[in-house]
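Collaborator request, handled under Task 6.
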Amino acid sequence: MPTVEVGDLADGDFLLDVREDDEWQAGHAEGALHIPISDFVARYGELTEAAPQDGRVHVICRSGGRSAQVAMYLVQQGIDAVNVDGGMQVWAAVGRPVVNAEGQPGFVL
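Structure tokens returned to the collaborator:
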């Protein structure tokens, strides 16, 4: 499974958050696309419309388990996708900004 460290992500990298709605609302990376893993197959078209054509999809969840499943699925579909190792827990721990549904400072649920 291809993975990337949070510290290797650059501003502007395409980020797909596959956590559930309550997790997203509590805190997420600003600018990420949110498609919960429970809705992912049904909403797959949203990803293909939003993702950069020649770019990489960085898939993130709370700790890396769910995002690894989605990243593997995307790779099987021929999409350049990687799992973000450690997920939002590491994202927040290294000081990357986390915002809630209102755009205020959030937290990882």
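The cover message to the collaborator said: "Helices lie at 21-26, 44-50, 65-76, 87-93. Residues 65-76 form the longest helix (12 residues). Please let us know whether this matches your experimental observations."
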